[in-house]
Amino acid sequence: MIRIGAAEATASCLLPPLLVRWAQTHPGVPIRLRVLSSAAICAGLRENELDVGFMHGVDGTAGLLARRWMEEPWLVVARPQHPLAQGVGPISLDMMRHQAQWAWLVTSATAQDAVRQRFESGVGALHIALGLGSVQAVIAIVQSSDLLAFLPRHAVQPALHRNALATLETEGMPLNISLEILRNPEVRLSGPVADFQDFCRAEAAALSSMLDWGALTNPGS
């Protein structure tokens, strides 16, 4: 068994099709996927409770081997009827800071810290109106309110194609955030884990192409 830890957005939206293909090509090697905060992923790797981790950024990864897996585009999204989605032109950083309220994905006290720090480093402090524990909860709230959200393209792509969400043209967006694949170099690398890492690297190109295709076909971008 290969034990994997990943943040909610990655575990619920990006990894499932990859893991289906793994199961089809490696039927004798099961996967256990856990949704964890970045801190819990690092702790699990150090304590040999996880074999592989996926997380955004490398904060807190001292002593672990982190390799960039892909650059993942993140978008600011709103319901199509939102006042800021009515063709008013690029949304300024000042408007995002002072006129927008946000629904934010927070699966634990420390989850999504790297993403929020990266976003706020360019935008400034946000007004977080709601912290929610799943991607689907964030999407549902945004679809039915005037809250904005900042989510990975792979998570919102189905809603964008249904015109249930719209991307906002904003300064500096989309923002590409590095998704890292981690392991503990002090733990002997087993054959199945090595095969899984090779598989992930091979699949990264296909996943990146899928995200690029979404950028071309998304009616809201």
From TrEMBL:
Keyword Amino-acid biosynthesis: no
GO MF term list: transcription cis-regulatory region binding
Source organism of the structure: Achromobacter xylosoxidans (strain A8)
Protein name as it appears in the record: LysR substrate binding domain protein 2
Alphabetical list of InterPro entries matching this protein: LysR_subst-bd
GO biological process: one example: regulation of DNA-templated transcription
Similarity comment: Belongs to the LysR transcriptional regulatory family.
Residues annotated as domain LysR substrate-binding: 2-204
Keyword terms, alphabetized: Transcription, Transcription regulation
Pfam family, one: LysR_substrate
